[in-house]
Amino acid sequence: GEDVEQSLFLSVREGDSSVINCTYTDSSSTYLYWYKQEPGAGLQLLTYIFSNMDMKQDQRLTVLLNKKDKHLSLRIADTQTGDSAIYFCAETLGVTSGTYKYIFGTGTRLKVLA
Amino acid sequence: DVKVTQSSRYLVKRTGEKVFLECVQDMDHENMFWYRQDPGLGLRLIYFSYDVKMKEKGDIPEGYSVSREKKERFSLILESASTNQTSMYLCASSTKGGGPSYEQYFGPGTRLTVT
After folding, report:
1. A3: closest CA among B94, B41, B91, B25?
2. Contact residues, chain B, for A105 at CB < 8 Å
3. Which residue of chain B comes nearest to A36, CA vs CA?
4. A92 at interface of B, judged by CB pairs closer than 8 A
5. DSSP codes joined into one string, chain B
6. Mean pLDDT of the B6-34 span
7. How far apart are CA B50 and CA B33, in angstroms?
8. Strand, helix or coil for residue A91
């Protein structure tokens, strides 16, 4: 079945690197995504990776994809207090109407300690 | 600036009441979605709509219905609210199709409490 799993909590000190991990089930996903949810807000797209890539870097963010193990990770370098949020990984699944739905993970709450 | 708005940020209703949650997007998106968010369970899809008057059940449709009479508006209806429907409800919209441009835009959420 469709399942995207993440650990629930991560706590890091300001200035350290954070690594948020995710395992997904659908090997046919063409793109995999990371969304961020700040307190009191909806989700916002942070970054995505194409499934034929192993790594993607975007400023302080590095996404690693191990397609064989269906494992996705998000590394945040030099973590700041403003990075405190819930991070969701997600994959898309085609549905019968010809559109796509997202399967979101359980979310990892990142707490950055000053 | 893209915008998805939800009619209320906080709502308190009594068990058995009929509840309407409204969502409006201004991006002319074909797709609209309703999710509920619960701690430890992430986002779970309730219903989505890929066109006006078209809808599909998501993963947890029981106890909910939806209405999409206009492209920009998608309503979630709780026919008879129950305490286990206390949750954060998030609306989202997107264009059709997959790919990196397939970003979902989210509203700020409605925190519903059923007493």
Report:
1. B41
2. 42
3. B106
4. yes
5. ---EEES-SEEEE-TT--EEEEEEESS--SEEEEEEEETTTEEEEEEEEEETTEEEE-S--TTEEEEEEETTEEEEEESS--GGG-EEEEEEEE-SS-STT---EE---EEEEE-
6. 96
7. 9
8. strand
**Chain-chain contact of A99 with B97 (C-beta, under 8 angstroms):** yes
Question: Which residues does chain B have within 8 Å of residue A102's beta carbon, measured at their own beta carbons?
Answer: 33, 43, 45, 104
Of B98, B94, B91, give the one whose Cα is nearest residue B34: B91
| Beta carbons of A107 and B58 less than 8 Å apart | no
Query: Which ranges of chain A have pLDDT less than 70?
Result: 1-2, 96-97
> B53-96 pLDDT, tens per residue?
999 999 999 999 999 999 999 999 999 999 999 999 999 999 87
Task: Using CB atoms, pick whichever of A102, A106, A107 lies closest to residue B104.
Answer: A102
Cα dihedral B52/B57/B58/B60 (nearest 10): 130
Quick one: pLDDT at residue B40? 84
Q: How far is CA A33 from CA A22, A81, A88, B98, in A?
A: 11, 22, 8, 12
Identify the residue among A102, A103, A109 best suited for mutation to test binding to B, counting B beta carbons within 10 A and taking the highest.
Answer: A102
A60-80: per-residue pLDDT in tens?
999 999 988 999 999 999 999
